[in-house]
Amino acid sequence: MQRTKTWLNSILVLMLLVLSASLTAQETDKDKQKANLPEVIWRDPGDIASLNLFYGAGGKEDAPDPNTIFIFVREDTQTSNPKFDIEDDQGVQWRVKLGQETQAETAATRLLWAAGYFVDEDYYLAKLKVAGMPKLHHGEDFVSPGGTVHGARLERKEKDVKKLGNWDWFDNPFLGKREMNGLRVMMSLLNNWDLKEVNNSIYEIDGERRYLVTDLGATFGNTGSTLTRSKGSPKDYAGSKFIRKATPGFIDFVLHSRPFFLMAIHVPYYRERTRMEKITKHIPRADVKWLGRRLSMLSEEQIRDCFRAAGYGPEEIDIYTKVMRKRITQLNAL
Hints:
The chain has helices at residues 2-35, 102-115, 178-189, 234-239, 267-276, 285-295, 300-309, 314-333; strands at residues 39-40, 69-76, 83-87, 93-97, 122-131, 143-144, 148-157, 162-165, 200-205, 208-213, 243-246, 250-253, 283-284. The chain is of the alpha+beta class.
């Protein structure tokens, strides 16, 4: 009897070891598959002239219903801009951002998407109702009694999207490639002065690793130091310079990010900001013209739709559209 029991125990242990080895092998295979996922930063959007830039990447079908009552989920107290999550009556969750960046970011995602780059599905609502709205740690000025939130950018949170991490402008799989250089031009076109690694994300979605610029709030103003830069300012955007230097082979665009010289005592910050200025410099002329040709397919109405979707007024839309068309013309004249 004892021998039988011992034998059965041995068989059980052996079976467990085999099962464990099999599961480990399966996990290893999955890890290898994930490691071999194709990495992409750009995809041809097709007929650019037919794109709906009012609704952007998510289209009308994914747009939030401004008349529904959203449910408050949680606040993110770790970010510099007021942010919190809400859920609509269809069970879709949204990340709400409040403050100065909301309109600029909404418009910027549409232009990047039209150029073929991956973006979050962002929408702007001038007003929305949120049930169960607590007093926010940040952004309470944008909330009126009864849970009415004003001037909000809503980012659709997709359940099948997994964030893998961040990527660096100076260390990524696309260095030197046309699509990466085009993205560098786009950052200058938008006057994006906050090109930190933390603002770039890698998403695993649909069997791919997609590289995105996921924080575009510091756009459509003036680049510069902490004393001079702005965002979402039509007047500043119109008064800013675009192309710094053009040679037969390369183009340098204007990006001021270096802090005021007294900030040099904060060495890491000063070094990071100074390094950013290299992102829009020494870009091959051929790659610049490639992007310019693609953007030239956009109609004036499509460009206006980017800024209409972001809730800008008629005069602001006129200014932004005029400057954007002028910059696209400059790219094609190189």
